[in-house]
Amino acid sequence: MTDTTVVWNEALLGYDMGEHPLNPVRVELTMALARDLGVLDRPGVRLEAPAPADDAALLRVHTPGYLDAVRTATVGASHHGLNTPDNPVFPHMHDASALVAGATLAAAEAVWRGETRRAVSISGGLHHAMPDHASGFCVYNDPAVAIARLLDLGAERVGYVDVDVHHGDGVQEIFYNDPRVMTISLHETPLTLFPYATGFPAETGGPGAEGTSVNIALPPGTSDAGWLRAFHAVVPSALRCFRPQILVTQCGADGHRLDPLADLHLTVDGQRATYLALRDLAEELCDGRWVATGGGGYALVEAVPRAWAHLLAVVTGDALDPALPTPASWRALVADRCPGRRCPDAMTDGVNPAYLPWSPGFETPDAIDRTILATRQAVFPLLGLDPADPRD
């Protein structure tokens, strides 16, 4: 069995909306940085080229009418969420979107069938796409397509953890009434950020699936210490109660302090700490079975490549030393692809991502602790846990 499968080839860069924040250069620079750091050449790492998801796979989460709309969309006709500033029509849109879905699908299948312990689809994580419309830069919802395949292959409990700065609304919507899937999303509050309407603590799962939707809506300005305190106050306890057989994660890098589209203040050091925590939970609860995807991230040079190179390192083996310099070969590529952009010279932002664990003794008006308590009070009783007990 291969230790880690990285599903990748350059055809995945075809998911390209043109003059748009979701620029595929961030994925190109990520893979180049990981390669230049030797991450992709580690023993036990296999690179696999994806095939497009077929209609049967896509129709597990999307409607026939929507697939037809994606296939036939032309510039100028707005329907099914297409031809908007967020979701412009682009050449070969169906083919490119189906390939991204196919990459995440292949990652999930390889892990579930025991061909590999962990797998990563760095181009994936298009978590906003809805059954019948595009949303938030996302055409097909590849995490949901992969989770649906896992259920079809016999999985009884799939854990999904989304650490993108935006609420993982599409995946939550698709599985809201399915008790076999627990969706956990840690994000900036929708009071201040897209998608605005969902991602609040009171969204805890539909009839028969109560307690399987978990939302941690953090205030703008949250830094590593608050993010990690919230993560560890909710995510491990919820997952331990649910007992997933496999962990699927969406690892959007747009919570970074330099991201132009959001208002959290994470560093690559805090994001690296989050990935390590996810790996530990997969090891503890799922015998190591972990499928990781990318997601959002719009600091194309300054944050995303370093964050996801750290993710690739954690998935494939040992974490990278944050003090490592970025390779000269990579900095040259950045200068060629993104002239004029500041290129980081190290894999760290120079921050120690230490945090103070949550306890009910935080009797302060701190917005992060109010967020933690709101989520625990909403969902923990449904899981048989005590929202006021720090041991739960």
UniProtKB/TrEMBL annotation:
<dbReference type="GO" id="GO:0045150">
    <property type="term" value="P:acetoin catabolic process"/>
</dbReference>
<dbReference type="InterPro" id="IPR000286">
    <property type="entry name" value="HDACs"/>
</dbReference>
<protein>
    <recommendedName>
        <fullName>Acetoin utilization protein AcuC</fullName>
    </recommendedName>
</protein>
<dbReference type="GO" id="GO:0040029">
    <property type="term" value="P:epigenetic regulation of gene expression"/>
</dbReference>
<feature type="domain" description="Histone deacetylase">
    <location>
        <begin position="20"/>
        <end position="314"/>
    </location>
</feature>
<dbReference type="InterPro" id="IPR003085">
    <property type="entry name" value="AcuC"/>
</dbReference>
<keyword id="KW-0006">Acetoin catabolism</keyword>
<dbReference type="InterPro" id="IPR023801">
    <property type="entry name" value="His_deacetylse_dom"/>
</dbReference>
<dbReference type="GO" id="GO:0004407">
    <property type="term" value="F:histone deacetylase activity"/>
</dbReference>
<comment type="pathway">
    <text>Ketone degradation; acetoin degradation.</text>
</comment>
<dbReference type="Pfam" id="PF00850">
    <property type="entry name" value="Hist_deacetyl"/>
</dbReference>
<comment type="similarity">
    <text>Belongs to the histone deacetylase family.</text>
</comment>
<dbReference type="InterPro" id="IPR023696">
    <property type="entry name" value="Ureohydrolase_dom_sf"/>
</dbReference>
<dbReference type="InterPro" id="IPR037138">
    <property type="entry name" value="His_deacetylse_dom_sf"/>
</dbReference>
